[in-house]
Protein backbone atom coordinates (compact mmCIF):
# COMPACT_ATOMS: atom_id res chain seq x y z
CA UNK A 1 0.00 0.00 0.00
CA UNK A 2 1.39 3.44 -0.88
CA UNK A 3 2.36 5.66 2.02
CA UNK A 4 -0.20 8.17 0.83
CA UNK A 5 -3.02 5.64 0.73
CA UNK A 6 -2.13 4.47 4.20
CA UNK A 7 -2.26 8.12 5.27
CA UNK A 8 -5.89 8.13 4.21
CA UNK A 9 -6.94 4.84 5.72
CA UNK A 10 -4.63 4.75 8.70
CA UNK A 11 -6.76 3.82 11.66
CA UNK A 12 -4.95 0.63 12.67
CA UNK A 13 -3.57 0.95 16.19
CA UNK A 14 0.22 0.65 16.24
CA UNK A 15 1.72 -1.87 18.64
CA UNK A 16 3.97 0.28 20.84
CA UNK A 17 7.67 -0.55 21.14
CA UNK A 18 9.14 -0.99 24.62
CA UNK A 19 11.12 2.24 24.71
CA UNK A 20 8.74 5.06 25.86
CA UNK A 21 11.20 7.93 25.36
CA UNK A 22 10.90 8.06 21.61
CA UNK A 23 7.17 8.50 21.28
CA UNK A 24 5.62 11.83 20.37
CA UNK A 25 2.05 12.89 19.82
CA UNK A 26 1.50 16.16 17.98
CA UNK A 27 -2.06 16.92 19.02
CA UNK A 28 -4.83 18.78 17.23
CA UNK A 29 -2.94 20.66 14.55
CA UNK A 30 -3.87 21.33 10.94
CA UNK A 31 -1.69 18.87 9.03
CA UNK A 32 -0.62 20.56 5.77
CA UNK A 33 0.85 18.48 2.97
CA UNK A 34 1.53 19.65 -0.58
CA UNK A 35 -1.79 18.23 -1.77
CA UNK A 36 -3.88 17.90 1.35
CA UNK A 37 -4.70 19.74 4.60
CA UNK A 38 -6.75 18.38 7.46
CA UNK A 39 -6.95 18.54 11.25
CA UNK A 40 -5.36 15.43 12.70
CA UNK A 41 -3.08 14.10 15.39
CA UNK A 42 0.33 12.80 14.39
CA UNK A 43 1.82 9.89 16.31
CA UNK A 44 5.56 9.31 16.06
CA UNK A 45 7.60 6.38 17.31
CA UNK A 46 11.20 5.32 16.62
CA UNK A 47 11.68 8.33 14.35
CA UNK A 48 8.84 7.30 12.02
CA UNK A 49 5.30 8.64 11.62
CA UNK A 50 3.09 5.77 12.78
CA UNK A 51 -0.35 7.32 12.57
CA UNK A 52 -2.08 10.43 11.27
CA UNK A 53 -5.71 10.65 12.33
CA UNK A 54 -8.04 12.70 14.56
CA UNK A 55 -8.28 11.99 18.32
CA UNK A 56 -5.61 9.33 18.58
CA UNK A 57 -5.17 7.24 21.70
CA UNK A 58 -1.51 6.71 22.42
CA UNK A 59 0.56 4.56 24.81
CA UNK A 60 1.55 5.71 28.27
CA UNK A 61 4.68 7.82 28.37
CA UNK A 62 4.09 9.45 25.01
CA UNK A 63 5.22 13.06 24.99
CA UNK A 64 2.36 15.29 23.81
CA UNK A 65 2.98 18.50 21.84
CA UNK A 66 -0.05 20.75 21.63
CA UNK A 67 -0.53 21.96 18.05
CA UNK A 68 -4.09 23.22 18.32
CA UNK A 69 -4.54 26.38 16.23
CA UNK A 70 -1.20 25.80 14.54
CA UNK A 71 -0.06 24.15 11.32
CA UNK A 72 1.82 20.86 11.24
CA UNK A 73 4.05 20.77 8.15
CA UNK A 74 6.75 18.49 6.74
CA UNK A 75 10.21 19.67 7.75
CA UNK A 76 11.78 21.97 5.17
CA UNK A 77 14.19 20.43 2.66
CA UNK A 78 16.91 22.73 1.30
CA UNK A 79 18.32 21.21 -1.90
CA UNK A 80 21.20 23.66 -2.26
CA UNK A 81 23.74 24.49 0.48
CA UNK A 82 27.52 24.85 0.78
CA UNK A 83 28.67 24.15 4.33
CA UNK A 84 32.39 24.77 5.01
CA UNK A 85 33.17 24.75 1.28
CA UNK A 86 36.76 25.67 0.37
CA UNK A 87 36.12 28.53 -2.05
CA UNK A 88 37.84 31.66 -3.42
CA UNK A 89 40.78 31.42 -1.06
CA UNK A 90 38.85 30.68 2.12
CA UNK A 91 36.11 28.38 3.43
CA UNK A 92 32.47 29.22 4.07
CA UNK A 93 32.04 29.94 7.76
CA UNK A 94 28.84 27.95 8.36
CA UNK A 95 29.96 24.36 8.77
CA UNK A 96 27.81 21.25 8.92
CA UNK A 97 27.13 21.87 12.62
CA UNK A 98 26.34 25.59 12.70
CA UNK A 99 24.57 25.34 9.34
CA UNK A 100 22.25 22.50 10.30
CA UNK A 101 21.71 24.06 13.75
CA UNK A 102 20.47 27.16 11.97
CA UNK A 103 18.44 25.00 9.62
CA UNK A 104 16.39 23.31 12.34
CA UNK A 105 15.92 26.63 14.12
CA UNK A 106 14.20 27.79 10.95
CA UNK A 107 12.12 24.67 10.35
CA UNK A 108 14.39 22.92 7.82
CA UNK A 109 15.17 19.27 8.64
CA UNK A 110 17.25 18.20 5.64
CA UNK A 111 19.89 19.79 3.46
CA UNK A 112 21.45 18.66 0.20
CA UNK A 113 25.02 19.91 -0.07
CA UNK A 114 27.62 19.62 -2.85
CA UNK A 115 30.83 17.60 -2.93
CA UNK A 116 32.92 19.69 -5.34
CA UNK A 117 36.20 18.11 -6.52
CA UNK A 118 39.16 20.34 -7.25
CA UNK A 119 40.02 20.39 -10.94
CA UNK A 120 41.49 16.95 -11.67
CA UNK A 121 40.47 15.45 -8.30
CA UNK A 122 38.66 12.14 -8.12
CA UNK A 123 34.92 12.60 -7.59
CA UNK A 124 34.96 9.70 -5.16
CA UNK A 125 37.73 11.34 -3.14
CA UNK A 126 35.76 14.57 -2.97
CA UNK A 127 32.62 12.67 -1.98
CA UNK A 128 34.51 10.91 0.81
CA UNK A 129 36.01 14.22 2.00
CA UNK A 130 32.57 15.84 2.26
CA UNK A 131 31.15 12.75 4.05
CA UNK A 132 34.06 13.04 6.51
CA UNK A 133 33.19 16.67 7.19
CA UNK A 134 29.43 16.18 7.46
CA UNK A 135 28.81 12.87 9.24
CA UNK A 136 30.24 13.88 12.65
CA UNK A 137 28.60 17.31 12.62
CA UNK A 138 25.13 17.32 11.06
CA UNK A 139 22.19 17.96 13.42
CA UNK A 140 19.70 16.77 10.80
CA UNK A 141 19.68 14.42 7.82
CA UNK A 142 21.54 15.41 4.67
CA UNK A 143 22.56 14.21 1.24
CA UNK A 144 25.15 15.19 -1.35
CA UNK A 145 25.11 16.24 -4.98
CA UNK A 146 28.48 15.85 -6.72
CA UNK A 147 30.08 18.54 -8.88
CA UNK A 148 31.35 17.80 -12.37
CA UNK A 149 34.08 20.41 -12.08
CA UNK A 150 36.26 18.83 -14.78
CA UNK A 151 35.67 16.15 -17.42
CA UNK A 152 37.41 12.90 -18.44
CA UNK A 153 36.65 9.22 -18.90
CA UNK A 154 37.56 8.81 -15.21
CA UNK A 155 34.87 11.33 -14.25
CA UNK A 156 32.42 9.44 -16.44
CA UNK A 157 33.23 6.17 -14.69
CA UNK A 158 33.14 7.67 -11.21
CA UNK A 159 29.66 9.06 -11.87
CA UNK A 160 28.52 5.46 -12.39
CA UNK A 161 30.27 4.33 -9.19
CA UNK A 162 28.66 7.15 -7.20
CA UNK A 163 25.18 6.31 -8.46
CA UNK A 164 25.56 2.58 -7.91
CA UNK A 165 27.28 2.48 -4.54
CA UNK A 166 26.98 5.85 -2.82
CA UNK A 167 23.42 7.03 -3.26
CA UNK A 168 24.16 9.97 -5.53
CA UNK A 169 21.61 10.75 -8.27
CA UNK A 170 22.39 14.41 -9.04
CA UNK A 171 25.41 16.11 -10.56
CA UNK A 172 26.13 19.84 -10.80
CA UNK A 173 27.73 21.44 -13.83
CA UNK A 174 29.12 24.97 -13.67
CA UNK A 175 28.97 27.11 -16.80
CA UNK A 176 30.60 29.90 -14.77
CA UNK A 177 33.81 30.12 -12.70
CA UNK A 178 36.09 29.94 -15.73
CA UNK A 179 39.38 28.04 -15.12
CA UNK A 180 38.01 26.76 -11.81
CA UNK A 181 34.74 24.79 -12.06
CA UNK A 182 33.58 25.61 -15.59
CA UNK A 183 32.89 22.91 -18.21
CA UNK A 184 32.98 23.58 -21.96
CA UNK A 185 29.89 22.84 -24.05
CA UNK A 186 31.40 19.68 -25.55
CA UNK A 187 32.19 18.42 -22.04
CA UNK A 188 28.69 19.37 -20.91
CA UNK A 189 27.21 17.34 -23.79
CA UNK A 190 29.14 14.26 -22.69
CA UNK A 191 28.34 14.80 -19.01
CA UNK A 192 24.65 15.21 -19.71
CA UNK A 193 24.55 12.02 -21.76
CA UNK A 194 26.23 10.03 -19.02
CA UNK A 195 23.89 11.48 -16.41
CA UNK A 196 20.87 10.52 -18.50
CA UNK A 197 22.25 7.02 -19.05
CA UNK A 198 22.61 6.63 -15.28
CA UNK A 199 19.09 7.90 -14.58
CA UNK A 200 20.34 10.96 -12.75
CA UNK A 201 19.59 14.68 -12.77
CA UNK A 202 21.85 17.36 -14.17
CA UNK A 203 21.98 20.54 -12.10
CA UNK A 204 23.46 23.62 -13.72
CA UNK A 205 24.90 26.93 -12.60
CA UNK A 206 23.93 28.88 -15.71
CA UNK A 207 26.07 31.90 -16.44
CA UNK A 208 28.29 32.41 -19.48
CA UNK A 209 31.70 32.06 -17.82
CA UNK A 210 33.68 33.44 -20.75
CA UNK A 211 31.55 36.59 -20.96
CA UNK A 212 31.66 37.00 -17.17
CA UNK A 213 35.45 36.85 -17.36
CA UNK A 214 35.47 39.57 -20.01
CA UNK A 215 32.93 41.57 -18.04
CA UNK A 216 35.12 41.52 -14.93
CA UNK A 217 38.13 42.81 -16.87
CA UNK A 218 36.04 45.55 -18.48
CA UNK A 219 34.49 46.79 -15.21
CA UNK A 220 37.83 46.74 -13.38
CA UNK A 221 39.40 48.63 -16.31
CA UNK A 222 36.75 51.33 -15.75
CA UNK A 223 38.13 51.70 -12.22
CA UNK A 224 35.11 50.11 -10.52
CA UNK A 225 36.47 47.82 -7.79
CA UNK A 226 33.57 47.84 -5.27
CA UNK A 227 30.87 45.16 -4.83
CA UNK A 228 28.64 46.93 -7.36
CA UNK A 229 31.24 45.93 -9.96
CA UNK A 230 30.34 42.28 -9.37
CA UNK A 231 26.76 42.92 -10.44
CA UNK A 232 27.78 45.15 -13.35
CA UNK A 233 30.17 42.48 -14.66
CA UNK A 234 27.56 39.72 -14.98
CA UNK A 235 24.25 41.13 -16.23
CA UNK A 236 21.08 39.03 -16.42
CA UNK A 237 21.52 38.38 -20.14
CA UNK A 238 24.61 36.27 -19.35
CA UNK A 239 22.44 34.18 -17.04
CA UNK A 240 19.63 33.92 -19.56
CA UNK A 241 21.98 32.99 -22.43
CA UNK A 242 23.61 30.18 -20.45
CA UNK A 243 20.23 28.95 -19.23
CA UNK A 244 19.04 28.66 -22.83
CA UNK A 245 22.23 26.85 -23.81
CA UNK A 246 21.88 24.41 -20.91
CA UNK A 247 18.27 23.72 -21.89
CA UNK A 248 19.32 23.01 -25.48
CA UNK A 249 22.21 20.74 -24.48
CA UNK A 250 20.06 18.77 -22.03
CA UNK A 251 17.19 18.53 -24.49
CA UNK A 252 19.42 17.22 -27.28
CA UNK A 253 20.25 14.30 -24.99
CA UNK A 254 16.70 13.98 -23.70
CA UNK A 255 18.07 14.60 -20.23
CA UNK A 256 16.10 16.26 -17.39
CA UNK A 257 17.61 19.54 -16.18
CA UNK A 258 17.59 21.41 -12.86
CA UNK A 259 18.63 25.06 -13.07
CA UNK A 260 19.97 26.17 -9.68
CA UNK A 261 19.57 29.70 -8.32
CA UNK A 262 17.46 31.34 -11.01
CA UNK A 263 18.14 34.97 -10.10
CA UNK A 264 16.58 37.01 -12.89
CA UNK A 265 13.23 37.11 -14.64
CA UNK A 266 15.15 36.88 -17.92
CA UNK A 267 16.52 33.45 -16.94
CA UNK A 268 13.19 32.48 -15.37
CA UNK A 269 11.47 33.28 -18.67
CA UNK A 270 13.83 30.84 -20.43
CA UNK A 271 12.97 28.14 -17.89
CA UNK A 272 9.26 28.89 -18.30
CA UNK A 273 9.48 28.65 -22.10
CA UNK A 274 11.36 25.35 -21.87
CA UNK A 275 8.69 23.90 -19.58
CA UNK A 276 5.95 25.17 -21.86
CA UNK A 277 7.73 23.44 -24.74
CA UNK A 278 7.47 20.17 -22.86
CA UNK A 279 11.09 19.92 -21.68
CA UNK A 280 11.74 18.43 -18.25
CA UNK A 281 13.30 21.48 -16.65
CA UNK A 282 13.09 22.62 -13.02
CA UNK A 283 14.00 26.13 -11.88
CA UNK A 284 15.15 26.78 -8.33
CA UNK A 285 14.37 30.07 -6.60
CA UNK A 286 16.52 31.16 -3.66
CA UNK A 287 15.32 32.73 -0.42
CA UNK A 288 17.78 35.53 -1.20
CA UNK A 289 16.30 36.18 -4.64
CA UNK A 290 12.77 36.09 -3.23
CA UNK A 291 13.53 38.30 -0.25
CA UNK A 292 15.95 41.00 -1.32
CA UNK A 293 17.27 42.72 -4.46
CA UNK A 294 20.71 43.68 -5.69
CA UNK A 295 20.56 47.39 -4.86
CA UNK A 296 22.33 46.50 -1.60
CA UNK A 297 25.57 46.09 -3.59
CA UNK A 298 25.49 49.87 -4.08
CA UNK A 299 25.34 50.47 -0.32
CA UNK A 300 27.89 53.02 0.91
CA UNK A 301 29.03 50.65 3.63
CA UNK A 302 31.53 48.28 1.97
CA UNK A 303 30.89 45.37 4.33
CA UNK A 304 27.15 45.69 3.81
CA UNK A 305 27.50 45.82 0.03
CA UNK A 306 29.92 42.88 -0.08
CA UNK A 307 27.55 40.73 1.99
CA UNK A 308 25.17 40.59 -0.98
CA UNK A 309 27.80 39.44 -3.47
CA UNK A 310 26.80 36.08 -4.87
CA UNK A 311 26.55 34.49 -8.33
CA UNK A 312 24.44 34.88 -10.33
CA UNK A 313 24.03 38.31 -8.75
CA UNK A 314 20.98 39.54 -6.89
CA UNK A 315 19.45 41.76 -9.57
CA UNK A 316 19.29 45.53 -8.91
CA UNK A 317 15.76 45.79 -10.35
CA UNK A 318 13.65 46.02 -7.14
CA UNK A 319 10.74 44.30 -8.93
CA UNK A 320 12.72 41.05 -9.26
CA UNK A 321 11.83 39.40 -5.90
CA UNK A 322 8.09 39.81 -6.53
CA UNK A 323 8.39 38.56 -10.11
CA UNK A 324 10.31 35.47 -9.03
CA UNK A 325 7.67 34.82 -6.36
CA UNK A 326 4.90 35.08 -8.97
CA UNK A 327 6.69 32.45 -11.08
CA UNK A 328 7.25 30.22 -8.06
CA UNK A 329 3.61 30.50 -7.01
CA UNK A 330 2.37 29.29 -10.39
CA UNK A 331 5.01 26.55 -10.81
CA UNK A 332 7.04 28.15 -13.58
CA UNK A 333 9.75 27.96 -10.94
CA UNK A 334 9.51 24.66 -9.12
CA UNK A 335 10.90 25.00 -5.62
CA UNK A 336 13.09 27.01 -3.23
CA UNK A 337 16.57 26.61 -1.79
CA UNK A 338 19.11 28.93 -0.21
CA UNK A 339 22.56 28.28 -1.70
CA UNK A 340 23.69 29.06 1.85
CA UNK A 341 27.39 29.88 1.48
CA UNK A 342 28.37 32.37 4.18
CA UNK A 343 31.48 34.45 4.74
CA UNK A 344 32.34 36.85 7.55
CA UNK A 345 33.28 40.49 6.94
CA UNK A 346 36.96 39.59 7.21
CA UNK A 347 36.57 36.86 4.64
CA UNK A 348 34.59 39.08 2.24
CA UNK A 349 37.44 41.63 2.68
CA UNK A 350 39.64 39.37 0.56
CA UNK A 351 38.03 41.44 -2.21
CA UNK A 352 38.24 44.86 -0.56
CA UNK A 353 40.25 46.22 -3.51
CA UNK A 354 38.85 44.01 -6.25
CA UNK A 355 35.21 42.81 -6.32
CA UNK A 356 36.20 39.67 -8.27
CA UNK A 357 38.03 38.47 -5.15
CA UNK A 358 35.02 38.82 -2.82
CA UNK A 359 33.98 35.29 -1.83
CA UNK A 360 30.58 34.71 -3.40
CA UNK A 361 27.71 33.64 -1.21
CA UNK A 362 24.97 34.63 1.22
CA UNK A 363 22.91 33.15 4.07
CA UNK A 364 19.33 31.88 3.92
CA UNK A 365 19.19 28.46 5.56
CA UNK A 366 17.55 29.62 8.82
CA UNK A 367 15.19 32.15 7.24
CA UNK A 368 13.97 30.48 4.03
CA UNK A 369 10.61 29.23 5.37
CA UNK A 370 9.71 32.55 7.00
CA UNK A 371 10.73 34.49 3.88
CA UNK A 372 8.62 32.26 1.60
CA UNK A 373 5.67 32.43 4.04
CA UNK A 374 5.87 36.21 4.28
CA UNK A 375 6.51 36.98 0.61
CA UNK A 376 4.49 34.09 -0.82
CA UNK A 377 1.58 33.22 1.46
CA UNK A 378 1.04 36.54 3.31
CA UNK A 379 1.12 38.30 -0.05
CA UNK A 380 -1.73 36.07 -1.24
CA UNK A 381 0.34 34.60 -4.08
CA UNK A 382 0.31 31.02 -2.81
CA UNK A 383 -1.60 28.88 -0.34
CA UNK A 384 -0.29 26.73 2.50
CA UNK A 385 -0.12 23.63 0.30
CA UNK A 386 2.02 25.31 -2.34
CA UNK A 387 4.20 26.61 0.50
CA UNK A 388 4.82 23.03 1.64
CA UNK A 389 5.45 21.93 -1.94
CA UNK A 390 8.11 24.55 -2.64
CA UNK A 391 9.87 24.29 0.74
CA UNK A 392 9.83 20.50 1.13
CA UNK A 393 7.82 18.10 -1.03
CA UNK A 394 9.02 18.98 -4.51
CA UNK A 395 12.67 18.66 -3.50
CA UNK A 396 11.95 15.20 -2.08
CA UNK A 397 10.24 14.18 -5.32
CA UNK A 398 12.86 15.62 -7.68
CA UNK A 399 15.78 14.07 -5.79
CA UNK A 400 13.89 10.83 -5.26
CA UNK A 401 13.44 10.36 -1.54
CA UNK A 402 9.67 11.02 -1.44
CA UNK A 403 7.61 9.87 0.47
CA UNK A 404 10.36 8.98 2.92
CA UNK A 405 10.50 12.74 3.37
CA UNK A 406 8.48 15.75 2.23
CA UNK A 407 5.11 14.58 3.56
CA UNK A 408 3.29 13.95 6.84
CA UNK A 409 2.15 10.40 6.21
CA UNK A 410 2.27 6.99 7.86
CA UNK A 411 5.68 5.42 7.29
CA UNK A 412 7.45 8.69 6.51
CA UNK A 413 10.38 9.98 8.54
CA UNK A 414 9.28 12.08 11.51
CA UNK A 415 10.67 15.38 10.19
CA UNK A 416 7.89 17.70 11.30
CA UNK A 417 7.44 21.38 12.17
CA UNK A 418 4.73 23.00 14.28
CA UNK A 419 4.32 26.25 12.39
CA UNK A 420 2.65 29.42 13.70
CA UNK A 421 1.34 31.32 10.67
CA UNK A 422 0.22 34.35 12.68
CA UNK A 423 3.34 34.88 14.77
CA UNK A 424 5.96 37.30 13.47
CA UNK A 425 9.70 37.43 13.97
CA UNK A 426 12.29 40.03 13.03
CA UNK A 427 15.31 38.53 11.31
CA UNK A 428 18.72 39.60 12.61
CA UNK A 429 22.34 38.45 12.77
CA UNK A 430 22.07 39.26 16.48
CA UNK A 431 19.63 36.40 17.01
CA UNK A 432 20.21 33.96 14.17
CA UNK A 433 21.98 30.64 14.77
CA UNK A 434 24.40 30.92 11.85
CA UNK A 435 28.13 31.33 12.40
CA UNK A 436 28.23 34.33 10.05
CA UNK A 437 28.22 37.93 11.33
CA UNK A 438 25.74 39.32 8.79
CA UNK A 439 22.20 38.49 7.69
CA UNK A 440 21.04 39.69 4.28
CA UNK A 441 17.43 39.87 5.63
CA UNK A 442 18.47 42.04 8.64
CA UNK A 443 15.48 43.78 10.20
CA UNK A 444 12.91 42.07 8.01
CA UNK A 445 9.71 41.22 9.89
CA UNK A 446 8.11 37.99 8.71
CA UNK A 447 4.88 36.20 9.51
CA UNK A 448 5.40 32.46 9.83
CA UNK A 449 7.52 31.11 12.68
CA UNK A 450 8.55 27.57 13.62
CA UNK A 451 7.50 26.80 17.22
CA UNK A 452 8.81 23.23 17.32
CA UNK A 453 11.07 21.32 14.94
CA UNK A 454 11.17 17.53 15.08
CA UNK A 455 14.01 15.85 13.15
CA UNK A 456 14.13 12.08 12.98
CA UNK A 457 11.51 11.90 15.72
CA UNK A 458 13.58 14.06 18.11
CA UNK A 459 12.53 17.53 19.27
CA UNK A 460 15.57 19.55 18.16
CA UNK A 461 14.10 23.02 18.51
CA UNK A 462 11.30 24.25 20.75
CA UNK A 463 10.18 27.80 21.54
CA UNK A 464 13.54 29.31 20.78
CA UNK A 465 15.68 26.63 22.41
CA UNK A 466 17.92 24.24 20.47
CA UNK A 467 18.28 20.60 21.50
CA UNK A 468 20.65 19.49 18.78
CA UNK A 469 23.30 16.78 18.78
CA UNK A 470 26.16 17.07 16.26
CA UNK A 471 26.27 13.87 14.25
CA UNK A 472 22.66 12.93 15.01
CA UNK A 473 21.72 13.47 11.35
CA UNK A 474 22.21 10.74 8.78
CA UNK A 475 23.35 10.66 5.16
CA UNK A 476 20.33 9.89 2.95
CA UNK A 477 21.30 7.83 -0.14
CA UNK A 478 19.22 8.39 -3.27
CA UNK A 479 18.58 5.97 -6.12
CA UNK A 480 18.42 6.85 -9.81
CA UNK A 481 15.57 6.60 -12.32
CA UNK A 482 13.10 8.09 -9.84
CA UNK A 483 9.56 7.89 -11.18
CA UNK A 484 8.78 11.57 -10.61
CA UNK A 485 11.17 12.42 -13.44
CA UNK A 486 11.99 9.21 -15.28
CA UNK A 487 8.44 8.06 -15.96
CA UNK A 488 8.25 11.11 -18.24
CA UNK A 489 11.76 10.56 -19.61
CA UNK A 490 10.93 7.00 -20.60
CA UNK A 491 7.76 8.16 -22.35
CA UNK A 492 9.64 10.95 -24.15
CA UNK A 493 12.36 8.51 -25.23
CA UNK A 494 9.77 6.32 -26.93
CA UNK A 495 8.47 9.28 -28.91
CA UNK A 496 11.98 10.52 -29.74
CA UNK A 497 13.03 7.08 -30.98
CA UNK A 498 10.09 7.08 -33.37
CA UNK A 499 11.08 10.52 -34.64
CA UNK A 500 14.75 9.66 -35.33
CA UNK A 501 13.95 7.72 -38.51
CA UNK A 502 15.80 8.25 -41.83
CA UNK A 503 14.19 8.43 -45.27
CA UNK A 504 14.27 5.32 -47.43
CA UNK A 505 15.42 6.52 -50.87
CA UNK A 506 17.34 5.37 -53.97
CA UNK A 507 21.10 6.18 -53.64
CA UNK A 508 22.33 9.20 -55.60
CA UNK A 509 23.63 8.07 -59.00
CA UNK A 510 24.48 11.42 -60.68
CA UNK A 511 27.98 12.98 -61.28
CA UNK A 512 30.15 14.08 -58.33
CA UNK A 513 32.50 17.08 -58.51
CA UNK A 514 36.15 15.87 -58.23
CA UNK A 515 38.15 17.04 -55.22
CA UNK A 516 40.39 20.03 -56.36
C1 LIG B 1 29.83 28.38 -5.19
C2 LIG B 1 28.36 28.45 -4.96
C3 LIG B 1 27.96 29.52 -3.95
N1 LIG B 1 28.20 30.87 -4.31
C4 LIG B 1 27.32 31.65 -4.96
N2 LIG B 1 26.21 31.16 -5.44
O1 LIG B 1 27.55 32.83 -5.12
C5 LIG B 1 27.53 28.57 -6.20
O2 LIG B 1 27.93 29.19 -7.20
O3 LIG B 1 26.44 28.05 -6.17
ZN1 LIG C 1 26.15 28.26 -8.31
ZN1 LIG D 1 25.59 26.85 -4.91
ZN1 LIG E 1 3.51 39.40 6.97
From TrEMBL:
InterPro entries: Amidohydro-rel, Hydantoinase/dihydroPyrase, Metal-dep_hydrolase_composite, Metal_Hydrolase, Metallo-dep_Hydrolases_sf. Carbamylation allows a single lysine to coordinate two divalent metal cations. SUPFAM superfamilies: Composite domain of metallo-dependent hydrolases (SSF51338), Metallo-dependent hydrolases (SSF51556). Its cofactor is Zn(2+). It comes from the Eukaryota. GO terms for biological process: pyrimidine nucleobase catabolic process. Residues 71-460 form the Amidohydrolase-related domain. One of its GO terms (cellular component) is cytosol. Its EC number is 3.5.2.2. The modification N6-carboxylysine is found at residue 172. Gene3D superfamilies: Metal-dependent hydrolases, Urease, subunit C, domain 1. It catalyses: 5,6-dihydrouracil + H2O = 3-(carbamoylamino)propanoate + H(+). CDD domains: D-HYD (cd01314). One of its GO terms (molecular function) is dihydropyrimidinase activity. Keywords: Hydrolase, Metal-binding. PANTHER family: COLLAPSIN RESPONSE MEDIATOR PROTEIN, HYDRANTOINASE/DIHYDROPYRIMIDINASE FAMILY MEMBER. NCBIfam families: D-hydantoinase. Belongs to the metallo-dependent hydrolases superfamily. Hydantoinase/dihydropyrimidinase family. This is dihydropyrimidinase. It comes from Eptatretus burgeri.
Amino acid sequence: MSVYLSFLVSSSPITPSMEPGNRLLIRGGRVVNADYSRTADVFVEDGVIRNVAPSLDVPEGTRVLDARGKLVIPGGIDPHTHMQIPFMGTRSIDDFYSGTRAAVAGGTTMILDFALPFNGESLLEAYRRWRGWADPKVCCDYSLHVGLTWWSSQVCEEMAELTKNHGVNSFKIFMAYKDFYMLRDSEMCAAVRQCKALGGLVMVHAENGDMVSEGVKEVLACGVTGPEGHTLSRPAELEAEATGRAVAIANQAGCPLYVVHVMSHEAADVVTAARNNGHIVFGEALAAGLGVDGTHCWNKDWRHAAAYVMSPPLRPDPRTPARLMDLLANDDLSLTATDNCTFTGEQKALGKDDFSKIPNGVNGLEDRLSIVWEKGVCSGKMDENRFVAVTSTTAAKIFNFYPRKGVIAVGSDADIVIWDPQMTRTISAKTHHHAVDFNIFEGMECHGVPLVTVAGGRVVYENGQLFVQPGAGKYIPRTCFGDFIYQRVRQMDIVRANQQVGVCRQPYSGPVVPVL
